[in-house]
Amino acid sequence: IAGAEDANATNDSTSVGLTAPAATAASVAVTVLDNDTLAIDMTPTSVTISEAGSGVVQVRLTAMPGAATVVAVGSTDPGAATVSPTSLSFSTANWMTYQTVTVTGVQDVDLAGETASINLTAPSVTSAAVTATSLDWHFTSALPPLTSMIATGRNAASSMAKATPPFVRTR
Predict the structure, then answer these.
(1) Closest Cα to residue 147, out of 128, 160, 132?
(2) Torsion-angle region of 145 (φ positive above 0: left; ψ -120 to 50: alpha; else: beta)
(3) What count of Cα atoms within 13 Å lies in the side-chain half-sphere of residue 156?
(4) How far is Cα 77 from Cα 12, in angstroms, rounded to an integer?
(5) Per the omega criterion (within 30 degrees of 0), is the bond before 44 cis?
(6) Are 77 and 58 in contact (CB under 8 A)?
(7) Closest CA to 92 of 70, 71, 66
(8) Contacts of 19 (CB under 8 A, 6+ apart)
(9) Cis omega before residue 123 (within 30°)?
(10) In Å, how far are 72, 106, 110, 150 from 49, measured between CA atoms?
């Protein structure tokens, strides 16, 4: 007896009837232990966003649920990153279709970047987490473009005078 592969993560059971001429019929109970795991699958597993910027994470289930399943989506630090929507609904019809979660960095007044975990959970489902790193917009936008320059010889002074900030010409 061999179990059949299926899309769900539920153990199945059946009975097998045994008959033969001139023999007493018998029935044997068979339980098929499912090899699928009902879990949350997402891509990517980390996002880097700027403050007030956003990124997306695609979420689906790894197997067909036995019933409608609601996945809760939340940030461990809503002061660093928020999520939308805060829940995703999966059914036996759409469990394998990716749904989009938008992760948005929260603008603040400090110069530090922050990191938050975006947790995805549902009852009887193996949970998942995405790492969201929010780069501080004060820091990233305050940096001028880096320019490398070596000036030599007679035209060195005029070359330096044409250079863009942060170069300063001195005499």
Answers:
(1) 160
(2) beta
(3) 7
(4) 41
(5) yes
(6) no
(7) 66
(8) 25
(9) no
(10) 22, 10, 16, 35
For residue 8, what are its two tokens? Answer: 């769900």
Angle, CA of 129, 135 and 141, to the nearest 5° = 160
Instruction: State the number of CA atoms in the 13 A half-sphere of 14 facing the CB.
Output: 8
DSSP 107: P
- What does each of the 171 residues of the chain score in pLDDT, given as a tens digit? 777 666 667 667 778 888 889 888 889 888 777 666 899 999 999 999 988 899 999 999 999 998 999 999 999 999 999 999 999 999 999 999 999 999 999 988 877 788 999 999 999 999 999 999 988 755 544 444 444 445 555 554 544 444 444 444 444
CA distance 107 to 109: 7
pTM higher than 0.70:
no
Q: Is the Cα dihedral 154, 158, 162, 168 positive or negative?
A: positive
* DSSP strands (E only) in the chain: 12-18, 26-32, 40-43, 46-50, 54-61, 69-75, 81-84, 87-90, 99-105, 114-122, 125-135
Q: Identify the CA nearest to 57 among candidates 80, 30, 27, 83.
A: 83
